[in-house]
């Protein structure tokens, strides 16, 4: 059973069309939830860290939120340059490893 | 500022050959991670070093894989002998965090193809 599940696997939007990506997790004792962006042929790039339910972080057109079982990455009025794979990862319990989801491939058409 | 530097960027080899991937972390970072990424399994942690000491190697798939960090500015991941199922993109990442991974800085990866 996957501990981190991201949905949808792929999302195609028109420029300006806002939407949300989901990351649900089944681990207990969450120490942190992380969002990364990955462009083709590149390594993941850190976006946000969320530590507790109710926390929100914003960066440009992106806003990440966290509940007890899931996180959302809201994308407001996206632009084509927001096209990328967005990865979610969790760290939990006494474990300092990051467990990544498989990502959501976002395509924003002009 | 130089980020995490990995080499080679691409490697094509034949089954049974030895493969060595190299990583230079960001100066001042005391945590180093090796990850493997495939379409089927996503990003998987192979090994984690803290202050040049291997802390967790439970993700190393088998004895064919080994990793070293002789000093704070260099690490290697070696596969010997290589097999076609080792084909993947291997990422090195470094972090200044100690108790939790925190913000990881990834290199651009080494794409390995084993024929």
How would you explain this protein's 3D organization?
The complex is a heterodimer of chains A (about 110) and B (about 120). In chain A, the strands form two sheets. In chain A, strands 2, 4, 5, 9, 10 and 11 form a six-stranded mixed beta sheet that branches. Chain A has about 110 residues and is mainly beta. Chain A is built from no helices and eleven strands. Helices cover about 0% and strands about 55% of the residues of chain A. Chain A has strands spanning about 5, 10-15, 20-25, 30-40, 45-50, 55-60, 60-65, 70-75, 85-90, 100, 105-110. Chain B has about 120 residues and is an all-beta fold. Chain B is about 0% helix and about 55% strand. Chain B has no helices and eleven strands. Chain B has strands at about 5, 10-15, 20-25, 30-40, 40-50, 55, 65-70, 75-80, 90-95, 105, 110-115. In chain B, strand 7 and strand 8 form a beta hairpin. The interface of A and B includes residues 45, 89, 96 and 97 of A.
Query: What is the alpha-carbon Rg of chain A in Å?
Result: 13 Å
- Helical content of chain A stands at under 10%
Strand pairing plus helix content of chain B: what structural class?
Answer: mainly beta
Counted beta strands of chain B: 11
The main pleated sheet of chain A reads as: 6 strands, mixed
Any low-confidence stretches of chain A, pLDDT <50, length ≥5? none
State the secondary-structure class of chain A.
Answer: mainly beta
Helix and strand run of chain B? EEEEEEEEEEE
> Helical stretch count of chain A?
0
Supply Rg of chain B.
Answer: 13 Å
């Amino acid at each position: 059973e996957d501990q981190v599940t991201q949905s949808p696997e792929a999302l195609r939007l028109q420029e300006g069309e806002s939407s949300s990506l989901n990351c649900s997790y089944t681990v207990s004792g969450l120490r942190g939830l992380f969002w990364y962006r990955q462009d083709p042929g590149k390594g993941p790039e850190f976006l946000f860290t969320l530590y507790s339910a109710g926390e929100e972080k914003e960066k440009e057109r992106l806003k990440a939120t966290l509940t007890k079982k899931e996180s959302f990455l809201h994308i407001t009025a996206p632009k084509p340059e927001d096209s990328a794979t967005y990865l979610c990862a969790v760290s939990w319990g006494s474990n300092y490893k990051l467990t990544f989801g498989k990502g959501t491939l976002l395509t924003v058409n002009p | 500022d130089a980020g995490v530097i990995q080499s080679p960027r691409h490697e094509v080899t034949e089954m049974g050959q030895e493969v060595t991937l190299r990583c230079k972390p960001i100066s001042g970072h005391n945590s180093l991670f090796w990850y493997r990424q495939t379409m089927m399994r996503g990003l998987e942690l192979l090994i984690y070093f803290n202050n040049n000491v291997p802390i967790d190697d439970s993700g190393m798939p088998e004895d064919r894989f080994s990793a070293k960090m002789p000093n704070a500015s260099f690490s290697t991941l070696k596969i010997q002998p290589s097999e076609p199922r080792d084909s993947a993109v291997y990422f090195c990442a470094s972090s200044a965090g100690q108790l939790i991974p925190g913000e990881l800085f990834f290199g651009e990866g080494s794409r390995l193809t084993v024929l």
